[in-house]
Amino acid sequence: MTVLFIHGAGANPSVWHFQTLHFRDSVAVELPGHPNGSGLATVGSYADFVEDQIREKGIRQPVIAGHSMGGGICIELALRKLDLRGLVLVGTGARLRVRPDFLAKIQENYEEAARSIATWSVATSADPMLVDRVMSDLMRVRPEVTLGDFRACDQFDRMERVGEIGCRTLVICGEEDRMTPLKYAQYLHEKISGSKLVTIPGAGHGVMLEKHREFNRALESFLASL
Fold first, then answer.
1. N or C: lower Cβ tally within 10 Å for the chain?
2. Are 87 and 169 a contacting pair, CB within 8 Å?
3. Please, is 152 exposed, middle or buried when counting C-beta atoms within 10 Å of its C-beta (0-12, 13-18, 19+)?
4. Contact by Cβ (8 Å): 43, 152
């Protein structure tokens, strides 16, 4: 089966490095503007782009896995009743409100904002080199694209509809996620019938980078069940 990995706001496909190496027939999607071209204004518009990619590449019954904003994109696609083999929601929520200070900092001083966002994106115990890696990824994307992404996240709200999702679903969250706290994952798990929730100790928002072995084992187990 084909697994499509979809990155989050201000990120790029490299966040799935440990997954695309591990899972055969997996593809990490590059969303518009990440880092090439212009970004899009809404989570729904990004979902349109991914849906077009699935159709153009002739991918049948993919498993779609999305992180943060990418998870919002996956929720949007699942609500469109696409023919999906499975759904994996990582460090995400049915609503993705953004701290106002992040929006302000991106406009005032992008480098400082990138450092702050990167620090919040990993567990407090994470290797400082990982913070540098996340910051470097953010700096590859133009400030206006990252700002547009965060605004798109802030407008995203599928809390009233997420219970309509009917495909097999895995929800993964780092126990120390400060960007999309565990309660977001628990809400998804409660609302999506038959879903499985996996929490990974010692990981923050960037769980697939911070604890990639544990993450990959959880995903392997889910794929084997499909």
1. C
2. yes
3. buried
4. yes
Domain count, the chain: 1
Query: Tokens 């990982």 belong to which residue?
Result: 130
Q: Give helix then strand counts, H and E, for the chain.
A: 10, 6
Tokens of 115: 């450092």
pLDDT tens digits, 77-112: 999 999 999 999 999 999 999 999 999 999 999 999
pLDDT score for 166: 95
Q: 68's torsion region: left (phi>0), alpha (psi -120 to 50) or beta?
A: left
pLDDT band at 69 (very low <50, low <70, confident <90, very high): very high
Q: Check which CATH number belongs to the domain holding 198 and give it.
A: 3.40.50.1820
- Tens digits of residue pLDDT in 43-58: 999 999 999 999 999 9
pLDDT score, position 214 = 98
Sheet holding 63-67, edge to edge: 26-29, 3-6, 63-67, 86-90, 169-174, 196-200
| Residue 100: C-alpha distances to residues 104, 121, 133, 142 (Å) | 6, 16, 24, 19
